[in-house]
Amino acid sequence: MNRFFIFTFLTLLCTISFAQQALQRGQDIISPEIHDNNTVTFRLKAPKAAKVEITGDFLSSQVELKEGKDGVWEYTTPEPLAPELYSYSFIVNGLKITDPNNVYMIRDVASVTNVFIIGGGRADLYKVNAVPHGTVARRWYNSPTLKKERRITIYTPPGYEN
């Protein structure tokens, strides 16, 4: 009887391990590529695309990428960018998408955009630094005005709890 349960358990365990989700693998493309002079090159592999554009807070309007070999579209900023955190998205045949080669993203309610940092000055504040960090807590509270439970996010600086 014990052998039956052990065999069944091991079979079930093997079945579950094969049912894991296959995560999307990034392409072997560097995007964004930040050059030494603070210009940035964006690349997207889209061999079947008719038109690829980029939009971002470092651009005044959407800019069309140029198609290169193997269906890799590319755009390099004409001028160096100042140190800052920048966001961007690609527009492929009119559909806004994120950069599959950049894992850094910001979600803002209904939109998701990729981000990159040009280091130096204030931009270094966006990076993880070896300084004491505070605590972020999420709590539910009763709102007498709305007569329902609400959620609040509270930040306390390092050492505040003591």
Automatic annotation (TrEMBL):
Pfam family for this entry, one: CBM_48
Occurrences of domain Glycoside hydrolase family 13 N-terminal (ranges): 36-94
Gene Ontology terms for molecular function: hydrolase activity, hydrolyzing O-glycosyl compounds
One BP term from GO: carbohydrate metabolic process
Gene3D superfamilies reported in the protein's UniProt record: alpha/beta hydrolase, Immunoglobulins
Protein name: Carbohydrate acetyl esterase/feruloyl esterase
